Predict the 3D structure of the following.
Amino acid sequence: MDVLHDAKVQYLEELANHIRETLIETLLEAGSGHSAGPLGMADIFTALYFHILNHKPKQPKWKERDRLVLSNGHICPVQYVTLAYAGYFPKEELRTLRKMHSRLQGHPHRGSLPGVETTSGPLGSGLSQAIGMALAARMNREKHRVYCLMSDAEHQEGNTWEAAMFAGKERLSNLTAIIDRNNIQIDGFTEEVMPLEPLRAKYEAFNWHVVEVDGHNIRAIVDAVHEAVAIYERPTVIIAHTIPGKGVRFMENDYTWHGKPPGKEEAKAAVRDIRTLNDRIMSEHE
Amino acid sequence: MINSVAKLNPKLFDLDIEQKPTRDGYGEGLVIAGEANPNVVVLTADLKESTRCEAFEKKFPERFIEVGVAEQNMATIAAGLGISGKIPFISSYATFSPGRNWEQIRTTICYNDSNVKIAGHHAGVSVGPDGATHQALEDIALMRALPNMKVIVPCDAVEARKATVAATSIWGPVYLRFSRDHSPVITTEETPFTPGKAVVLWKSKKPQVAIVGCGPLLYGALAAAKELEREKIGTVVVNSHTVKPLDERLMLELAETVGRFVTVEEHQIAGGLGGAIAELLAARHPCPIEFIGMRDSFGQSGKPSELIAFYSMGANDIAGAVRRVMGRGAIN
């Protein structure tokens, strides 16, 4: 990982906003899919693919690449848009999301799209797949790292905790999990549907190193990953506190935007919010 | 008479024929596969002794992974290993794996096309005293329905060893089914074993019924064939060790030349080998079929031999099914 200069932080912040804008257009075109989670994770995806990950978009199967497992597959639109921006496939192809014969399946499928490391969608099974990859790397004495992005609500799945227990036992320090702690799920707020707190204490009890960050602060995200790399004796989980629907005022913190795309007028308003940073600046497009 | 090409155990019908559980063959196969290929890794969910992983663990401790009582985790960790160049074998009882972790197998192993081999142990009522919770009777159906999955049910310990080793050279998900109880060693080193290719074990001069089975119950099928020959009823006994992909060529050939079937498996009749054969024949060459297997019920505690008899899956029942199907006109 390079040093993160202030100029790069600003570049990444702007890039994340472009990714949000393309996300809205992509979701509008698809006519179905999830809005809140992808918008909330745009900063983390940008930081990962444009600063943290050691990868080669033109050689998606490069052996030494860092692996990124998206466990909560339903937020794949943000991964697809970021992959397209990074150069894995043409941006025009984003228009095919969720359509017949598209490489951009409604939930990610390994083998369909370059850059997608594994199939996901059914929640709770990404962390253990990432563990399998991290174990293989350790057996082969390979240096690459494995990142697993997870939702908060998938911590209601038993498989997630089976995996957490195993990674703690195996001291898998080449594995870093990042939790999108946005507090919403389909049926409402996580703490009402099925409380997850104290999440930090749970992971600590499972012998993980825990870091909590503001999931919209690029420098904080990068610093947390640096810390994870430095911790040798345990796996690290970064609990990233995010705002679902981040950047679009009428979507922010509203769980009803978890699983639906914007309509035409909503998309227009959303793009305006993103371009003007919620009316804080004038947009050159206005 | 015994098909000489199959090179079966010369002591086949002797009272002192060697008896060995098919799971022993799995354990031996793992070691051979591990020696031949450094990418072979073995996982178990707190059942290393009874699923016969201990010899592999002893020989390759760095390639043995104990996940604790967590079959869903075992399947998904294996999925990650399998797409990272490893050849993981996951070992548990079939009621738990692929029973409990079916969705993980579907999504992360099959849809992912990850190179994972699933060993389902303690299949059938012959598990015995543990009772119905531990007697897998639906696993073939669960695995057969999954795209990318291959399904192999060895008939004895020797074939189990061959199947385990062969699974490493089949790309992608493979389900291997093993039994707990001792059963006669039907085959020998020389018996041909090629995944996807069924083996004729017995062939009378004028066969009127084809008995197609998988797993240790095939010994009962051979005993039935021998008894029926005395009654001048000719049969062909086929070991369809690979349930998926089915040896369609041989089945259709039997449909044309023999025209009546009895299928034999220690599994629910719904969705098993009999179902696979019935699907093929109904579409391509309808024939009368009788099914030996579990009739939509759970098992119970008991001795394996008592259970096989009680649930009508023994040699006498197979012979009875042959006589029944004889009463139905062959279509050929």
